[in-house]
Write a structure and sequence with these properties.
- The protein is an alpha+beta fold.
- The strands form 3 sheets. It has a 4-stranded antiparallel β-sheet, covered by helices on one side. It has a 3-stranded antiparallel β-sheet with strand order 1-2-3, with no helix packed on it.
- The protein starts with a strand and ends with a helix.
Length: about 190
C-alpha cells in the first residue's frame, strides 16, 4: 500500500501503480477492527488524513433539511385534510423529530493547540483539553448499520456526542484522542 485517500466515510488504499485494491466503509461488519489493524500496520499512511479538516458543507445540509421538513410538513397537512389523520400525525412527528435533532449535528471541528471548537448549524462551542476527562468512541446501530461517533466525557460530569456526517467517527476519534494527549502533555510541561 502506497497511500490512503478518503471520500466521505470510505477509505481507499492505493497501490504504488495507483490502482485501488481495497476500499472500506463504516457500514462493513468488522470495520472498526479492520481499521485498527491498518492503523497499527500502516500508521505513517494515516498521517496524510490528519491534516484534512473535520468538516462538511453545512449549507447543503441546511437546504436539504429545509426541503425535507417542508415535504413532510406538506404531506402531513395533506393527510390531515383527506381524513387520513393517522398518517398526518405520523408525518408531523417525523418533521418535529428531525427539526429537533438537526441543530445537534456537528458540522465541523477545529483543532487548536489547547482547545477545539465544535460548530453546529446555529452555534459554536469550544472545549479546552483540561476540561476533558476522556475521549471514547460511541456506537449506535440504527436500522442494523453501525454508526460510530466521538463521545467526549467532561470532568464536570457532562458528556458530548460528536456525530460527524459524512466524516468517519473512528478517524475523528483517533485525531481528537491524539490531540488531547499532546495538549495535556504540553500543559503539564508548561506548569513544571
Amino acid at each position: 500500500i502506497d497511500r490512503i485517500s478518503r471520500r466521505g466515510e470510505y477509505l481507499f488504499f492505493h497501490n504504488y501503480d495507483g490502482k485501488t485494491p481495497l476500499s472500506i466503509g463504516s457500514e462493513m461488519n468488522g470495520y472498526a477492527e479492520l481499521l485498527e489493524l491498518f492503523f497499527k500496520k500502516h500508521a505513517k499512511l494515516f498521517r496524510v488524513l490528519e491534516n484534512e479538516p473535520l468538516s462538511w458543507d453545512s449549507r447543503n445540509s441546511n437546504y436539504f433539511m429545509l426541503l425535507y421538513a417542508l415535504l413532510f410538513f406538506g404531506a402531513s397537512i395533506y393527510f390531515f385534510y383527506t381524513a387520513e389523520w393517522f398518517l398526518g400525525v405520523g408525518y408531523s412527528g417525523i418533521v418535529i423529530y428531525s427539526l429537533f435533532n438537526w441543530p445537534r449535528i456537528t458540522t465541523s471541528i477545529i483543532i487548536l493547540d489547547d482547545m477545539f471548537i465544535v460548530t453546529y448549524p446555529f452555534r459554536e462551542k469550544s472545549y479546552y483539553a483540561r476540561w476533558i476527562e476522556e475521549i471514547t468512541l460511541g456506537e449506535t446501530k440504527p436500522w442494523g448499520q453501525v454508526s460510530q461517533f466521538v463521545k467526549i466525557n467532561l470532568k464536570a460530569g457532562k458528556s458530548i456526542d460528536l456525530r460527524l456526517f459524512p466524516h468517519n467517527g473512528l478517524l475523528a476519534y483517533r485525531r481528537l484522542k491524539r490531540w488531547h494527549k499532546k495538549a495535556l502533555k504540553k500543559e503539564t510541561a508548561q506548569i513544571s
